[in-house]
Amino acid sequence: MTILVTGGLGYIGSHTVVELLQNGFQVIIVDDMSNSEKFILDNIEKVAGKRPVFFPFDLRRKELLAQVFDAYEIDGCINFAAFKAVGESQEKPLDYYENNLFSLINILQEFKNRNISNFIFSSSCTVYGQADQQPIDEDTPLKTPESSYGKTKQMGEEILKDFATAYKKKVSLLRYFNPIGSHPSALLGELPIGIPNNLVPYVTQTASGIREQLSIWGNDYDTPDGTAVRDYIYVVDLAKAHVKALQKLMAETSETVIDIYNLGTGKGSSVLEVVESFERANDVKVPYKICDRRDGDITVAYANADKAERELGWKAETSLDEALRTTWEWQKYLESRK
């Protein structure tokens, strides 16, 4: 079975490609390299023992995408290709709408024209906005997200629901909470370009001396220690869920399937708790400063992932300390490459 993985050299994408290869799938990656580097392809091969096919182009290039579908018999797609920084999406909303939605539609047009099914969408817990109750399950009402990034994910889900219904396709919408950590080999991990937008790479860069201190965006939230609370899930656990979701889709006998799953640990951790966990796991100190709240951020979000355990046989297994230990190993690997 041949799976197209868009954004497959990115953070979650690269880990998922490894899991797919190790489970016997053939993989074709399309990635425009806007948030990755070529050495990740080599490292995927080192970890998985197989090298995926790779095409470096922007998915908004319809003619190049069509050539990939002409050349290979594709059985399904996992779509990671998207801009993903919450703060940046507030500053550049049109860039986010164009990139995240046009690329998705172009792939779906190929699926429709060539009668292909089995589509997995990299969604996000941001589709819930600031939920009224915690933990968040799949029946929690969706609210207008706080950020343009979140809005593109919510719009993407609606596009896919209409796509599946109108054309009798099988789709799975995977709503991630906050992925962290790196592959146990320390050969794959999060590779932010410039100043990190996500908490954990900012923590590791601060601990290594690249950043002078960590900026904590707000300590006046309605949480036990005043800092925002999120559900931090180990990236390898998350990657494995994609394989489970794909296998379920492929086994479905119904023509039209719309699966929706939360992927998280079921436990919320505050920003300060993450910092303390990182320091404990790696025996290093992380200097930080408290800043004003960041536009687009919500107060609390953590998952009820019981549905994924019940229907996919999947659950998060890795502790916060262990996930943060692997992150530090990845940071040391990156330093060794310089």
TrEMBL record:
Its EC number is 5.1.3.2. One of its GO terms (molecular function) is UDP-glucose 4-epimerase activity. GO terms for cellular component: cytosol. Residues 4-326 form the NAD(P)-binding domain. It holds the Pfam family GDP_Man_Dehyd. It catalyses: UDP-alpha-D-glucose = UDP-alpha-D-galactose. Gene3D superfamilies: NAD(P)-binding Rossmann-like Domain (3.40.50.720), UDP-galactose 4-epimerase, domain 1 (3.90.25.10). One of its GO terms (biological process) is galactose metabolic process. Pathway: Carbohydrate metabolism; galactose metabolism. CDD domains: UDP_G4E_1_SDR_e (cd05247). Keywords: Carbohydrate metabolism, Isomerase, NAD. The keyword NAD applies. InterPro entries: NAD(P)-bd_dom, NAD(P)-bd_dom_sf, UDP_G4E. Homodimer. This is UDP-glucose 4-epimerase. It comes from Kaistella antarctica.
